[in-house]
Amino acid sequence: MNRDITQMLISKLSGLTLSTDTGKFLADKSYGFDTMFFACRFIQRFRFGDVYKKLELQEKSNAYIKDLFCLRTASQIQNYFTEAVALLVFCGVLRKTSKRGVYEIIDDELLDFISSSFENAYIFQYMLCYCVFVHDGIWDKYKEFCKAQTLAHKQGIYLQIREIFIEKDNRVIDPTRKWANFVPKYPMVVLNYANHQNMISRTTIVQTRDVKIEDISLNTEGTRANMDLPKKNAYLHDFSDSYVTETLRPYLITPASKYDTISYSDSFSIDVADTKLDMLDDDGRTSDMKEKILKGKYKISARGVQTRTVQGEFRSALFVKTPHKCPVCGFDFKNLLIASHIKPYSKCEDTYDAMNPNNGLLMCPICDKLFEHANYITIDYKTGNVIYDTNIEDEKSLQYLHDCTVSYDYIDGERRHYLKWHNETFYEKHSHMTKE
Ligand SMILES: [Zn+2]
Q: Which three-class secondary structure string do you get for the chain?
């Protein structure tokens, strides 16, 4: 089956060369496998028959990219989509029409393939680089690069590859321009990931370390407003090396260890993209849909992908991440534990917040109700102390809340960020109480 995938890609991509003058080969946004996956999924969702109206959908695609890539400023946002579309034109997935900003979708199979998983988006990019390199006579040079034993030797071969790019790449009109220097960096980094080869910097220096998954994914680090927490997207941990390696094996230069079983799960990446796409859907369903997701009743169905419940995914992620008992009272009958969002779905700023198991706790039905919307209780993000509304102090059945402290396991790392929000909301609602 994997043989069929690479054969399909070769049959579609083998005519391409650096001098193909429709669209653009890999650039500094489109070489990210996540950029291509997210862009293709967006196009699939908002296509109009066989037409994609890029200009008309610009506001929507900007909002999508801004959210998924955790961008703050507007300046870069457009590039992600523009470069992804330019690459799709290069590969013959899209074709420009006479109308400005309107594209015809001419290769559904390839578009489906790229948008079906992050791994496939990477496999597509690897095979694209392979085809272009073979066509332009660079593949043998690339083999030499991989087999070279010293860094100095690799550097020398890389510079020879750069010369070929400068001569053949239709984008390089003036080779003295600084950016002309690093056009070969992008395909080399893509190929180097699966071949366990070295990272190449924008200053075209072959570095000592190998290309990591973070280097070929553009959405890895973001910033958080309140606390200095690193934002690593969970889909990087789900990326299946076994699937990628076994699919690409005949085209790898560096021998890779044999995987006996291929483990492969696409649920997180697809849920992240589709949850956001649903939120962007324009027909007035947005708030209603959020409500349904909150209640766990909404099911997402996507092209060629099995149906799943967002709330269900969130709950199973929590079961993996946290102990199976209510942190407040210790209730541990699994079937009745509820996946409570700390910051409710309706208040989440972005998809990352909504899907993040660190934005959740498994609670018993009673504590869930008390904790919901910070109505009666909150958990101090620094100490783990349960803080309750003084108005319920005398309630007999709630005495267990007095002097109750949640174990540190529940308030570590990123969860503190969400609990801090919950604390602030609690004090806003209970203005008769003062923060100690
Ligand atoms: Zn409880």
A: CHHHHHHHHHHHHCCCCCCCCCCCCCCCCCCCHHHHHHHHHHHHHHCECCEEECCCCHHHHHHHHHHHCCCCCCCCHHHHHHHHHHHHHHCCCEEECCCCCEEEECCHHHHHHHHHCHHHHHHHHHHHHHHHHHHCCCHHHHHHHHHCCCHHHHHHHHHHHHHHHHHHCCCCCCCCCHHHHCCCHHHHHHHHHHCCCEEECCCCCEEEEECCHHHCCCCCCCCCCCCCCCCCCCHHHHCCHHHHHHHHHHHCCCCCCCCCCCCCCCHHHHHHHHHHHHHHCCCCCHHHHHHHHHCCCCEEEECCEEEEEHHHHHHHHHHHHCCCCCCCCCCCCHHHCEEEECCCHHHCCCHHHHHCHHHEEEECHHHHHHHHHHCCEEECCCCCEEEECHHHCCCHHHHHHCCCECCHHHCCHHHHHHHHHHHHHHHHHCCCCCCC
